[in-house]
Amino acid sequence: MKIAILGNQARALCNFWPALIRHLLACGHETLCLVPFPADALERKAVYELEAMGTAPRFYRLDRKGLNPLHDALTVKTLVSLFRQERPDIVFASTIKPVIWGLLAARLARTPGRYAMITGLGFAFEADTLPKKALKLAACGLYKAALSGAHGVFFQNTEDRDVFLQSRILGANAPIRLFPEGTGVDIERFKPAPLPQNGPVFLLMARLLEAKGIREYCRAAEILKSAYPDARFHILGPEEKGAGSIPVDELRAYEARGIITYLGKTDDVRPFIADAAVMVLPSYREGLPCSLMEGMAMGRCAVAADVPGCRELVRPDVNGLLVPARNAPALASAMERFLKEPELAAAMGARAQNIIMEQYDARNVAVNLAAAMGI
Fold it and tell me: Residue 339 has what DSSP assignment?
């Protein structure tokens, strides 16, 4: 069979779906990776990594964060052309725009098998203002059109599935399946690492988006820094543009005051995880957070917001702590537990690593996902 895997970045496919790609290739299937034209050195490197796996990259135009309908129409046109040219047997798409525009294009191109993985609901479903409500209404309509006739729609948590059902994006008899392991994690790549001996270090790994709880993290760090001057609060992740993004200058202002350290972006997060004792993700909503899974695979516990996605992964007082979302004082209080009781990080981190080994191996996810697509 010929399988087309559609993503919004080459490095996202390298980070989240390598086990699936390798499994499909090992089974003898021709595998294409459809990604936007590489915009920087990290994306070009990721394209080379995809080629090294044995897959064939194909490029299309995508404005990841923009809301210009002309740009999106061009995306659909490009994808329809690609699908008609390549004639894949199955299209598998993940993340918001690839799911919407990719499955619409696959339907127009009459691709026989069309599957979507919903990895989170994103900015459009944070309907707390009139513009966001309008955006949610539009997103629901687009999702409904794209997923109509899909052969499988996969969710990483039950709450995202319920939102799609309640919003009537999907009917009660839609071909839905849950993948509570998310994308899984490559346990051969993310191996346990000893906890650092250079003092307490917290790490938030995320794109610079408001919905990742970055502002709450900075305020929590500010609360703790005066009482615990040796504690360090790191942020690792690429800059973003458009609605919901956080200007890097805002982080630099905290950094100038000695509150946080912004580490920028990287193509290998493992050294930064190894340098940390506790992972932190005060996100407003997730599918299933890969950053926490990767940290846990390396023996790190987590402090996360008690929201969909995070609460499926973090078990309070077992492998981490949950706190109310959008609440910097509560986040600071939870992080302070690890400053007062440093032995907690080792104990919870060991349990976190065991849970990942037992339940979140990406190789098992790949086998199950391929089977769900009839591959």
Answer: H
For residue 31, which of 47, 59, 53, 8 has the smallest C-alpha distance?
Answer: 53
What's the average model confidence in pLDDT over 279-304? Answer: 96
Q: How far is CA 126 from the centre of its chain?
A: 17
Q: How confident is the model at residue 124 (pLDDT cuts 50, 70, 90)?
A: low
Question: What letter represents residue 217's amino acid?
Answer: Y
- List, in sequence order, every residue forming a beta bridge with 305; answer none if it has no partner: 323
- Beta carbons of 322 and 333 less than 8 angstroms apart: no
Stretch 314-321: mean pLDDT = 97
Q: Name the nearest CA neighbour of 290 among 4, 11, 54.
A: 11
Q: Encode pLDDT of 89-118 as tens digits.
A: 999 999 999 999 999 999 999 999 999 999
List Cβ neighbours of 301 (8 Å cut-off, separation of 6 or more). 278, 279, 319, 320, 321, 344, 345, 348, 349, 351, 352
Q: Which domains does the chain have, with CATH numbers?
A: 2-184+361-372 (3.40.50.2000), 201-359 (3.40.50.2000)
User: pLDDT digits over 204-233, tens only?
Assistant: 999 999 999 999 999 999 999 999 999 999
Distance CA 71, CA 2 (A): 28
Radius of gyration of the chain measured on its C-alpha atoms = 20
pTM listed for this prediction: 0.88
Report the mean per-residue pLDDT for the chain.
Answer: 93
Q: Is 19:365 a contact under the CB 8 Å cutoff? A: yes
Helix (H) or strand (E) holding 279: strand 278-281
Tell me how far apart the alpha carbons of residues 212 and 281 are, in angstroms, rounded to a whole number: 7
| CB 126 within 8 Å of CB 39 | no
Pick the closest to residue 51 from 21, 95, 82, 81 (CA basis): 21
Per-residue model confidence (pLDDT) at position 204: 98
Distance, in Å, from the CA atom of 367 to the CA atom of 292, rounded to the nearest integer, reads 22
Indicate the SS3 state at residue 28. Answer: coil
**What are the structure tokens assigned to 265, written together?**
């972006």
CB 6 within 8 A of CB 36: no
